[in-house]
Design goal:
The chain is α+β, with helices and mostly antiparallel strands and about 200 residues long. The chain folds into 2 domains: about 70 residues, no CATH class; about 130 residues, no CATH class. Helix content is about 50%, strand content about 15%. Helix 2 runs parallel beside helix 5 and helix 3 packs antiparallel against helix 5. The longest helix has about 40 residues. It is globular, with a radius of gyration of 22 Å. The termini are far apart.
Length: about 200
């Protein structure tokens, strides 16, 4: 029997050979966007108890089977409710999406800086990155030296790790921290949009 596992909302692909095949779902949603993969990470927030469907497609035919995920009795004994788990999932998906946007913003900054370096090389001049781009990158990415202050991407990663570590309702401090980080990210995205519009206009 071939056994595989999948998660993060990805499509399971089983062995094509004859015989029985089994897959194991890790109950995870897709994780945040990973710049190295250009795709979501595998382990995102955990699905809540409820009814789900598995669909098997082979040889042009498809069949669907409904199944149910139950709450861990130990979690229920601690007083955690379905509504609290739903709230936790909704919050964690928001933090995950913000982390994806922050990572993509860093890629946008690096792309603009690379364009400046290329233009300088073609002109035979020394590359001089605009201070605004340097500032935005420094706000997003933690400086690669020991004991550096964690910046926005790392702070969002830490928040997501803390709120997905246990089955429980997020506290008010988690919401407050998210609102603060999301506001910082919105300001960075607005500045990037402005720089990209200016860059596009200069290339016309």
């Amino acid at each position: 029997m071939a056994t595989g596992s999948f998660g993060g909302g990805s499509e399971a692909r089983l062995e094509k050979g004859a015989g029985m095949h089994r897959f194991i779902w890790d109950l995870r949603y897709p994780g945040a966007w990973d710049p190295d993969r250009g795709a979501p990470e595998g382990r995102g927030p955990m699905a809540v108890p409820g009814s789900y469907q598995a669909r098997l497609t082979a040889g042009g035919r498809s069949t669907t089977q409904t199944f149910r995920v139950y709450i861990d009795p130990r979690v229920a004994e601690d007083g955690v409710t379905q509504e609290q788990l739903q709230e936790q999932l909704a919050f964690n998906l928001e933090v995950r999406d913000a982390l994806s946007l922050a990572r993509k913003a860093a890629v946008r900054v690096d792309s603009l800086l690379a364009g400046i370096d290329q233009a300088a090389a073609e002109a035979g001049d020394a590359a001089a990155a605009p201070q605004e781009l340097d500032r935005l990158r420094a706000a997003l990415v933690t400086h690669a030296v020991r004991y550096s202050q964690p910046m926005l991407i790392d702070q969002l990663e830490y928040l997501l790790d803390m709120t997905t570590r246990a089955d429980q309702q997020p506290g008010r401090d988690a919401y407050a921290r998210y609102d603060q980080l999301r506001g910082e990210l919105a300001a960075i995205e607005e500045a990037l949009d402005r720089i990209e519009r200016s860059d596009a206009a200069a290339r016309r």
